[in-house]
Each structure stands twice: as C-alpha cells, then as structure tokens.
Amino acid sequence: MPILTTTTRVTYATRLPRGTTHASALAMLADHEFFLACGPHMAKYERITASDDNAAKQSRPAGPEIPDFVKEKLRGGSSGNAQLPEPHRYRVTDNVNAGLASMFGTHVVSEYEFVHLPDGGGLYVRVRSPMGIVMDSLWEVREADQGQDDEPDSGSGSAPDLDLVQNGAITASRFLVGVVKGQCDDGSMEIHRRLVKRLEEREVD
C-alpha cells in the first residue's frame, strides 16, 4: 500500500422488520438495480457487459487486496475456497454536493462490483472511485442479539429477529479518507433505511 494511502473500517447495523426471513433479505440484496437506486446521490447507472469489461480490464487498477473479513467468509463456505466468484459490474454516476464539488466535480463516476458469497454468506460490494478511492462492504443477514430493550418472542416457534450488518473498509489517500468516510456514513444509513422500507412494504402486501 502506498505510504500516503490508508484504510479505515466502518460498521453499520439495522434491525430488520419482525417476520423477515433470511432468504427474503438475501433476495432483496440480490436485486442489484434496487440496491443502486437506494443510493441517495445516485444519478444513473448502467450494467457493464462482458465485452465492455474485457476492454476495461486493461485500464482498471488492481486495487487493495480483498479484506480479511471477506476472505474469512469465503474460507468458511462449504467449498473452503477463498477465490471470489465472478462479479456483476455496474458503472454508476453520483451527484456531488456543493461542499465537495471543488474537490470531485459535480459528478463522480464509479465502478461497482457485486459478488454473492456462497452458502448465504451475504453480498460483497467493491466500489472503485476516482482518486484511488476503494470502498469494500460485506452485507450480511445475522440473527439479532437479544438485548434488554428487545421484546421477547411471542412463542417458541416464532422466527428470530434479524439484523442487516454492513462491514466496510475504505481505502483512500490520508487527505481524503475522512471526507470519504463522512459521505459513507450518511449514504450507508440512508441505504439501510430504504432497504428496510422495502421489506416493510412487502410485509404489508
């Protein structure tokens, strides 16, 4: 890693609506277009086709290694293989707020890579942005810890409460990582809110 580049970790967690199943939450994460539409700054996106991807490989920087928290999930799968499956790639254009326009311009074009980990291990997302910024996130559906403020289950046969947990790593210049983290904090929580809203609406239907 270059001497002026650093990596910082982030974690966000949201309780999913009661009655949500592990399968239904993972199915929602598998809807990449809906996931992208949840981004609060997203202006447009397009799927990167196989032919486009072959051309882009020549100019795509290698980026940092896959984070350890993703490797551990891969090794823990039934195959025990730490090799990532082939990702689904999208080119995403985000609007930039006025306070950051002097640094990034009015729009930022990033490349998103979506990888579904085996055995229901969750969704791994890598975002490659200009200026060498790389954001890695592992989205998992976990059984919630029962805290003092949680309501008890109505019966022994009821489904457990679930949390949507996002573990992330932001790699960027030391001069930019704080700014990027601030944007990630705001954007991720809004994405969580919109994902939960979709599950709530489906429960009503």
Overview of this structure, please?
The mean pLDDT is 86. The chain has one domain (5-75, 83-145, 159-204): Alpha-D-Glucose-1,6-Bisphosphate, Chain A, domain 4, CATH 3.30.530. It has 205 residues and is an alpha+beta fold. The protein has helices at residues 22-29, 32-37, 50-56, 68-75, 101-104, 177-204, and strands at residues 5-15, 42-47, 88-95, 107-117, 122-129, 133-143, 162-173. It has 6 helices and 7 strands. A hairpin with a 4-residue loop joins strand 4 (107-117) and strand 5. The radius of gyration is 18 Å and the shape is globular.
Short description:
With 205 residues, the protein is of the alpha+beta class.
**Percent strand:** 25-35%
CATH fold name: Alpha-D-Glucose-1,6-Bisphosphate, Chain A, domain 4
Q: What is the assigned CATH homologous superfamily?
A: START domain
For the largest beta sheet, what order do the strands appear in spatially? Answer: 1-7-6-5-4-3-2
What is the first-to-last residue Cα distance? Answer: 49 Å
Uncertain stretches: none
The name of the CATH architecture is 2-Layer Sandwich
Q: What characteristic shape results from the CA principal axes?
A: globular
How many alpha or pi helices? 6
Instruction: Work out the number of β strands.
Output: 7
* Count of domain modules: 1
Domain DUF7053: 6-200
Protein name: DUF7053 domain-containing protein
Region (Disordered): 144-163
Pfam families: DUF7053
